[in-house]
Amino acid sequence: MMACRNELRSALQAVMENRLKLPIAMPLEDPVRINEDLRVDSIMLLQLLVFIEQDLRLSIPEEEVDAKAFATIGSLLDFLERLAPIEGQRDADALSEPVPSRIGVTEG
């Protein structure tokens, strides 16, 4: 499980640096406070949620979003570990493709 958490930590740092353009000068250890230490405000938190869904392909149900989850890097990683992956786009595309029907087709 630890490798999974470390992968999430690395992916989260990449999102914060590349998408939110945060200059992160410290390791993202569990006690790092997202608002106070990283200077992430409420608008940036909303953006972070969108980027997590897009980049990490994790589904974030609105009813499960709690401010406590965004207090520290550790609490955010705990929250992310509980999320389900978003279903692959390829699967959704396959379901929407028309299925050829053989009804009424006669071989000649």
Automatic annotation (TrEMBL):
InterPro entries: ACP-like_sf, PP-bd_ACP. Residues 3-84 form the Carrier domain. It holds the Pfam family PP-binding. This is Carrier domain-containing protein. It comes from Paenibacillus plantiphilus. The lineage of its organism: Bacteria, Bacillati, Bacillota, Bacilli, Bacillales.
